[in-house]
Design a protein that fits this description.
TATA-Binding Protein, 5-stranded antiparallel beta sheet, Endonuclease III, domain 1, alpha+beta, 2 domains
Length: about 260
């Protein structure tokens, strides 16, 4: 068990940022999460976080997973030097956000399921998928071997056919996950959109959260609303020189806007 004081890190904000769907709040100060079939419990206590794992496991896996090597303080300073009032408020509000380094396949599945869906339902679908797969996140092979009754239990709707067709493309070698991992942002999103059911939003979310291509700027209903109502569709990352960190900017905006609407 590790008790750590971490700068620019807040597990509560990260858990509520819409990027991770297998992180669950189990008490006021406690979260449990699953990643690559690993499990971790994290507690938030005043200025510290308690990680229920050994130091070796934290250094070997969780430190990278939480992107602790990236200087988010410097990223925030860049954004705060703009005179964009909305961005400044968003950064100050979500000062503990980080882009997790999650599994590519899991993010592809998660954001396929996210289409026309809300976060509680996405989490529920993913939990059910893991439940019918003996607790493990299903691989492409697993999807093709599931019984029809199992998939119907998950209640994926039209997304079921998307996942089956994508799984088939991966298993048949038509779509190469290892090739995708090595691609730059624009090449990766173009390649992702060759898959059945993958459009701009899913491709950009996969690039950002599954490949850590932090220049990706996914536009979902929340971001679309921000661009329309806050910026009259005249928002430009390039104007402030932030295009290389667009995905991190997007997370601050997304988190801030959702919290504002929930108040």
């Amino acid at each position: 068990m590790l008790n750590l004081e971490l700068e620019d890190f807040d597990i509560e904000q990260i858990a509520d940022s819409g990027q991770c769907f297998r992180m669950y709040r189990v008490a006021d100060d406690t979260w449990e999460l699953f990643a690559l079939n690993r499990f971790l419990k994290v507690q938030k206590r005043k200025g510290t976080h308690i990680f229920h794992c050994e130091r070796d496991e934290f250094d070997d896996f969780w430190s990278d997973y939480f992107d602790l090597q990236t200087d988010y303080g410097e990223i925030k300073r860049r954004i705060l030097t703009t005179n964009d009032e909305y961005l400044i408020k968003a950064v100050n509000y979500g000062s503990g956000l980080r882009i997790l380094r999650q599994d590519l396949w899991e993010m592809m599945v998660s954001f396929i399921i996210s289409q026309q869906n809300n976060i509680p339902r996405i989490k529920n679908c993913l939990k059910k998928l893991c439940d019918i797969n003996k607790g493990k996140f299903p691989t492409p092979d697993d999807f093709l071997n599931f019984r029809e009754t199992d998939l119907n239990f998950v209640k994926l709707g039209y997304r079921k056919n998307y996942l089956l067709k994508i799984s088939e493309s991966v298993c048949n070698g038509i779509f190469d996950l290892e090739k995708l991992r090595k691609m730059a942002y624009l090449e990766a999103t173009k390649y992702l959109k060759t898959l059945h059911g993958v459009g701009d939003k899913v491709a950009n979310c996969t690039a950002l959260f599954g490949m850590h291509r932090i220049e990706a700027f996914p536009i979902d209903v929340w971001i679309k609303r921000i661009l329309e109502t806050r910026y009259c569709n005249d928002f430009s990352l390039e104007y402030w020189g932030l295009q290389d960190i667009g995905g991190i900017v997007q997370q601050y905006m997304f988190f801030y806007e959702r919290r504002l609407k929930s108040q």
